[in-house]
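Course assignment 3, question 2. Fill in each field.
Student: A.L.
Task: Predict the tertiary structure for the chain below.
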Amino acid sequence: QVHLVESGGGLVQAGGSLQLSCAAAGLTFSINSIGWYRQPPGKQRELVAALITGGDTKYADSVKGRFTISRDIAKNLLYLQMNNLKPEDTAVYYCNVQVWRGGGLEDYWGQGTQVTVAS
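Answer field:
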């Protein structure tokens, strides 16, 4: 069973930086993608950044140039470095892994970590 645990969220002033981490366990299936999503207050969950198997990297337009996704495969860790944070980045951030299982894709989620950016 895939298990994801996020850490690193908190309160930061606008213009500041945070690094989120996601510890992954049970990654025995073929991975299609691994990444970060967020859910702002009162809004739907949205993609922030993802690493796609095969080498592609996706970023939401709103975070391009400010956020960087990276992965330490040996340690089963996923990171999201967030710089020049803005109040609109306030959200619960979720780690996501999408794997191939049983002929289809399955999504696994962490419990989320709160990021609050004060103006």
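Instructor remarks: The chain has a mean pLDDT of 96. Residues 23 and 70 are 13 Å apart (CA to CA).
Grade: pending
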